[in-house]
Amino acid sequence: MNITGEQFRFLCDLYSSVAYNCPVFLIQIFGENNNVVCSSKPENISIDQFNKLISIVTDLEIKKDGNSEYIINLEENISTEHFNRIKVELVYNCEFSVFYILSGVSENIIENDVLDKLLLIKKCINERLQYEETINKQYIETTSNIHNVIYSTNVTGTHYYFISKSVENLFGLKIEDIIKNKFSLLRKVVPEYFKGYNKFIKKLKSGERSEYEYQIFEADKKIRRWIRHTGTPVIINGRVERVVGIMSDITEEKTILNKLEKSEEKFRLLIETVSDLIIVLNSFGYVSLINKNGAKSLGYKPEEILGKHFLELIEESNKNNTVDAFQKILSSEEVTEFEATLLDKFENQVVYDFQATPTKDDNVISGMLALGRDVTKRRQDENRMIELNTKLVEANRLISIERDRAKQQLTVLEEINKLKNEFVSRVSHELRTPLASIVGFAETIVSDEDMPKEMVVEFNNIILTEGKRLAKLVNDVLDFSKLESMNFQLNKKDNDLVEILYLIADSFKSYAEEKEVTMNFEIPEAEIIILADRELISKAIKGIVENAIKFNKPGGRVSLIVQDFLNEVEIMINDTGIGIPEKELPKIFEKFNKFDTKTGQTVGAGLGLAYVKQVIDVHKGLLQVKSEVNKGSTFIIRLPKKK
Fold it and tell me: Burial letters for 12-35: b for 16+ Cβ neighbours within 10 Å, e otherwise?
């Protein structure tokens, strides 16, 4: 056992207080390098004499031969007028250090009261050491009953000053064997951990507290045990003298951790394999986990979504419904289903059908786990079907109305029959071509199971294009029929024409780029208010702009110029397209009139410009056209402004 530095300084001060002219002081020699700590040097001895004296004492063999007292005859260069001999008395000898009392002996007799004080001090030291011995026994008893190994060793870990008895159970080695054989513990370390163990020792040597986890062999060299080894350097006078620390058995901890990691890996693989959106929110609604495929479906990487609030991903008009759904989830023990519209990275709306349940820690709600399936396409198909059914009902009703009117007058009936037959003939012709393509390509896909994927994609695109063409034709027919209905009511309101035209311009940018046509818009910034049905006016102007782009040439140009007059506004749409033959201009706004100066074949059902003319007329406006073949056309629309 060792006396602390504080205790040693106390004893030194105590001796110095009774030394008087007689050199009496305490010295401690400790460590492998015989480091020396002692009380203050007496005033009646020089530094050289003091250092020489310490050197002589350090060389004594008191620790080895067991003698408790030496009388040293001093050399001339050490002795003084006060003394010529030094008595060296062994006070305490332990494994770590040796304590001596040095007192001068001269011809003069030391006063009795000084001697009494010295004896009293020696008695105090012995009593203190006996107390320390008792504490040491209690310490050993305590550490022996702790499963962790407590140790004190030199800097390199090759010599143990103290090691608790638990080491015998943990390493299977006797304490005396460990002390005798400095490499006994090191041989237990599995070789693959030597490199890390050396780094651990280097940190301790540098005075840095360190910790290292490694495996050791059991007796049969097959079973391995995990050890967590911590060390704290003991620094004296700026130098690392020894290391104290703890070695703990963490085999069970590692086993549990390994099982947990494997379980987490299986869970992670499950999450990453699922194509649906899996998302975990914390108690504040922030995303704490999202699977890779789910994030990808929204155009993100998982790390880009982590930490975001779930409502940041929700489309604005859908946020209130989502909050209501959250409240229902958190108040229910069962799985709750709700639908939410999310915005992807590119601001596109994606509809998800979610099934969610609250998560709990210690029976307290800590968040929410939700599984979402993308149902955007399904919802679009459902809405489209509803829309088509509505139009079909309207179409049937219109046919029924026309049939009833035809019964009233034979002349009207004949005219209607004529128009109907002409309409059916032309529409049938327009329907036949896309339907034939749709049926033909669909049958080809169904009949050929080995068809390359690229060809299947190409055929599907053709089917989609032709389907859209059919839908547009049906829409045009229905819209025109609705406009001609006697019961049709305009929804006239105050509208800013400038705003309408800017929206139209934006809607045709991508189509113009696709057709390689340059678009130019000269629209005033100040608002121009007209009293009009916004939907009809927009569609009429769009019809003219669409034709200007569609029947243009690559590299062609389309211009839309607006002039604001006192009582009316003029919209001029110019193009550099194929133009219209002069003989066709008087009939251009008639129903079912169509032509193609380039191919000689008719295109469309012939309702587009007739519809535009009808819309402008019901708004008390004027529609004119000027055109030259292969040079282009100019359509002029004049509409009254609101007074």
Answer: bebbeebbeebbbbbbbbbeeeee
Residue 278's closest CA among 289, 267, 263? 289
Token reading at 565: 């007059």
Q: What is the pTM of this model?
A: 0.35
End-to-end CA distance of the chain: 110
- Domains delineated in the chain: 5-142 (3.30.450), 146-255 (3.30.450.20), 274-374 (3.30.450.20), 378-484 (1.10.287.130), 492-640 (3.30.565.10)
**SS3 assignment, position 363:** coil
Measured CA to CA, the distance from residue 319 to residue 371 in angstroms comes to: 18
Q: Which stretches does DSSP call E strand in 534-610?
A: 557-564, 568-575
How far is CA 332 from its chain centroid?
29
Residue 348 CA, distance from chain mean position? 22
Q: How large is the C-alpha radius of gyration of the chain?
A: 51
| HSE-up (13 A, CA, CB side) for residue 521 | 17
DSSP state of 75: P
Quote helix, strand, coil % in the chain, to nearest 5: 45, 25, 30
Q: Provide the Cα torsion 384, 389, 395, 397; round to 10°.
A: -150
What is d(CA 11, CA 25) in angstroms, rounded to the nearest whole number? 9
582-588 contacts at long range (C-beta below 8 A, 24 or more positions apart): 582/627, 582/629, 585/625, 585/627, 588/625
Give pLDDT, residue 14. Answer: 47
pLDDT tens for 107-162 read 444 444 545 555 565 666 666 667 667 766 766 666 666 788 888 888 877 788 88
Q: Between the CA of residue 301 and those of 290, 314, 345, what are the distances in Å? A: 9, 17, 10
Closest CA to 501 of 481, 523, 485: 523
Question: What would the two tokens of residue 611 be?
Answer: 């519809």
Q: How far apart are CA 302 and CA 588, in angstroms?
A: 57
Higher pLDDT residue, 118 or 326? Answer: 326
Residues 6+ apart with CB under 8 A from 151: 160, 162, 163, 164, 167, 244, 245, 246, 247
Q: Which two tokens stand for residue 60?
A: 């004594």
DSSP symbol at 641: P
Alpha-carbon gap, residue 406 to 247, rounded angstroms: 104
Q: How many residues are recorded in the chain? A: 643
Element (H, E) at 76: none
Q: Which of 338, 347, 301 is nearest to 320 (CA)?
A: 338
